[in-house]
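task queued by scheduler; priority normal; single chain, no ligands, no partner chains; default sampling; output format set to structure tokens
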Amino acid sequence: MIESILERWSGRKRAAPTPAWPASVSIADRAVPLEVREHPTARRIVMRLAPGGTALRLTVPRKTPPRIVLAFLERHRSWAEERLAGATGRIVVGAGTCLPLRGEPWRILHDPSARSARLERDESGNALRLGGDGAHLARRAADFLKREARRDLQAAVDRHAGAVGLGPRSLALKDTVSRWGSCTVDRRLAFSWRVVMAPPFVLDYLAAHEVAHFREMNHGPAFWALCRELCPDMDRGRQWLKREGASLHAYDFGA
């Protein structure tokens, strides 16, 4: 399909500033929705798989010709096929769903009489007991994870911030797909709350990474040296996010 599109578009002059991208591309005999976003500061094409393998998402520099983008897709077809093969479908959160928390699975139990969310362990396994109306179960599960994420992230940030001698101005939680954390020049931190679903060493690496930006607002050698000093196990955390991070976005908590 990509080849036919290239042939159809080859030699065609762009009639409008924004190219008319194809709605989908054929990958491994499957029509995969294609989402292309032009970014004013992008210097190269970046391709990601949407959570659950629902789409291919490309960020491209402004005014990139369609033929260049489609040629990029063709060169990286094997990457897309591998990621799609391992993609987890969307998981709608509800009663009975197994949610990961700090790297462990916890099955959601709906108990309308429960007044607060609580974790329970017994011979049958791990359970997250949630109360209230069943229609709001997913939101209550997300609220619980956000509270746990804030507690874990604040503790990790405080520990690493103490090591560099600078504290954060603020700490916000978001549900971003493109990045797990960010740090502004005035030390305002933001993290994806879904990181609390990963093993603790992953959250610790992410906190150390962003706190290292308090001293080094770049990704040069000095930054990585400081990051490793704060988190000696950083390679394991970094690789886990690259390899497994997308799976955390497969959980659908609703609007």
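post-processing summary
- Residues 194 and 248 are 7 Å apart (CA to CA).
- The chain has a mean pLDDT of 88.
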